[in-house]
Amino acid sequence: MDEYTFTENFNNQGRPSKTYLCYEVERLDGDATIPLDEYKGFVRNKGLDQPEKPCHAELYFLGKIRSWNLDRNQHYRLTCFISWSPCYDCAQKLTTFLKENRHISLHILASRIYTNNHFGCHQSGLCELQAAGARITIMTFEDFKHCWETFVDHKGKPFQPWEGLNVKSQALCAELQAILKTQQN
DNA sequence: ATTTTCAAT
């Protein structure tokens, strides 16, 4: 991913009409975590501006996971950094996937919380996803930095945080915690 | 075309 794409999409104060999702996979073996570099990359959604059928980024990600045919006798942790948190529909599909694939753990780190929904309530989607075992958090400075170093063609340049990164991240984190807490009661 | 949250208006 080039620098511009990363900054344009992951800046937590922006609101681009597209979504990028960066993913990486580790195999868990007792206390050890073994990174699987062959399963690392990013996808973006297909929007109305493209010839293909519109499709949210998460569904491409699910397709990729399925194509890997990860060994059901092993345990894996998938980490995905997504510029918009999953909508209700995608959250449901991820929930179903996790229930059917107990050998896979999922950690979702979102830059921003997506709230534009037509077919349901994004809050309950995220809650169900959490209840299915997913860990859902908001990206912090360290997460943006990790993404930069892992997925961006940074040409040796260090990650440069934008103005207000931490303040926004903290605000979104509080918002997400309120969402995830409300529905547990 | 404008405003814009994986578009919607």
TrEMBL record:
It is found in: Cytoplasm, P-body; Nucleus. Belongs to the cytidine and deoxycytidylate deaminase family. GO terms for cellular component: nucleus; P-body. This is DNA dC->dU-editing enzyme APOBEC-3G. Its cofactor is Zn(2+). Its EC number is 3.5.4.38. It catalyses: a 2'-deoxycytidine in single-stranded DNA + H2O + H(+) = a 2'-deoxyuridine in single-stranded DNA + NH4(+). One of its GO terms (biological process) is cytidine to uridine editing. The keyword Iron-sulfur does not apply. Residues 15-137 form the CMP/dCMP-type deaminase domain. Transmembrane segments: none annotated. InterPro entries: APOBEC/CMP_deaminase_Zn-bd, APOBEC_Cyt_Deaminase, CMP_dCMP_dom, Cytidine_deaminase-like. It comes from Bison bison bison (North American plains bison). GO terms for molecular function: cytidine deaminase activity; RNA binding; zinc ion binding. Pfam families: NAD2. Keywords: Antiviral defense, Cytoplasm, Hydrolase, Immunity, Innate immunity, Metal-binding, Nucleus, Phosphoprotein, Repeat, Zinc.
